């Protein structure tokens, strides 16, 4: 099922920064909006910060949608689905985001094509 509006479906992947940053960031995570292809990138010190990053993503998506659509009351600004590969860092996130009404979809094992948007973005950054 394809996205029908901005902020509805996100593809995500985690990348490793080859050199640790001055502030200790070792990882980055990209969330690619399936509808607009807009990319949200966040830095992380540890991979288990994924849930906190998701909270930031929700806030930023809500702000962007409110900026784009002036009649927010007629527009659902909640993320409907997040899709990622089978990284263990996403397992906890998948259990937690249900409270927002968001579904989490894991791709099949060894099929990076299913999260192609996020995978290509990681390759471009590296």
UniProtKB/TrEMBL annotation:
Domain of life: Eukaryota
Domain Integrase catalytic intervals: 2-126
Entry-linked PROSITE patterns: INTEGRASE
UniProt-listed Pfam families: rve (PF00665)
GO molecular function, one term: nucleic acid binding
GO terms classed as biological process: DNA integration
Name of the molecule in the record: Integrase catalytic domain-containing protein
Organism: Phytophthora fragariae
């Amino acid at each position: 099922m394809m996205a029908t509006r901005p902020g509805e479906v996100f593809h995500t992947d985690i990348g490793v920064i080859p050199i640790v940053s001055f502030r200790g960031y070792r990882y980055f995570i990209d969330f690619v909006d399936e509808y607009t292809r807009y990319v949200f990138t966040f830095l992380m010190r540890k991979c288990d910060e994924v849930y906190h990053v998701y909270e930031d993503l929700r806030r930023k998506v809500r702000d962007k949608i409110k900026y784009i659509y002036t009649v927010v009351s007629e527009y659902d600004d909640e993320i409907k689905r997040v899709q990622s590969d089978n990284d263990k860092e996403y397992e906890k996130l998948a259990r937690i985001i249900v409270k927002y009404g968001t579904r989490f979809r894991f791709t099949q094992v060894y099929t990076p094509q299913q999260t192609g948007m996020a995978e290509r973005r990681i390759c471009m950054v590296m």
